[in-house]
Amino acid sequence: LAANVAACHLAFAGFEAFPPDKTWLVARFKVPEPLLHLRKAVWRACREFGVAYPDALWLPCIKVGRFRGPKGQVDKITSLDCLAQYSPTTPARALGLTVVCGEHHGLACDEW
Q1: What is the pLDDT along the chain (112 residues), one digit of tens a residue?
Q2: Residue 66 forms beta bridges with which residues?
Q3: Residues 25 and 89: beta-carbon distance below 8 Å
Q4: Are 64 and 27 in contact (CB under 8 A)?
Q5: Is the dihedral of CA 17, 112, 41, 53 positive or negative?
Q6: Neighbours of 79 (CB within 10 A)
Q7: Are the C-beta atoms of 80 and 12 separated by less than 8 Å?
Q8: Which of 3, 20, 96, 99 shows a CA-CA span of 20 to 30 A to 59?
Q9: What's the distance, CA 83 to chain centroid?
């Protein structure tokens, strides 16, 4: 499975305000099948050792920035179409897979 990931390209899907509070601007990507299968295989291996998070829909994204302002103003963001001109024109490429423990400093527990 890992060999197939080297050839994976992640097509840009769009910019989104990341829930639940929508203060993070993220660039969202479409998941190619080989990468989806690798993630599932790693998740199953982690589950066997009792270290897996409950499985959920996986939507790869990159944090681009953060919206600053009162919650009332941030809640009014309904469209990010004005950012379309900043969309990448070439797909992203998976460079590898890193599995980190929950105690790893510098990473949030959901960045795996």
Answers
A1: 555 666 778 899 999 988 777 888 999 999 888 888 888 888 888 888 887 777 767 778 888 888 888 888 888 888 888 899 999 888 888 776 666 655 545 544 444 3
A2: 24
A3: no
A4: yes
A5: negative
A6: 8
A7: no
A8: 3
A9: 18
> Residue by residue, what is the 3-state secondary structure of the chain?
CHHHHCCCEECEEEEEEECCCCCEEEEEECCCHHHHHHHHHHHHHHHHCCCCCCCCCCCCEEEEEECCCCHHHHCCCCCCHHHHHHCCCCCEECCCCCCCCCCCCCCCCCCC
Record the tokens describing residue 59, joined without a space: 């939507």
Strand partners, 17: 25
Q: What distance in Å separates the CA atoms of residue 36 and residue 34, rounded to the nearest whole number?
A: 5
Cα–Cα distance, 14 to 10 (Å, whole number) = 12
Q: Which residues touch 56 (CB under 8 Å, ≥6 apart)?
A: none
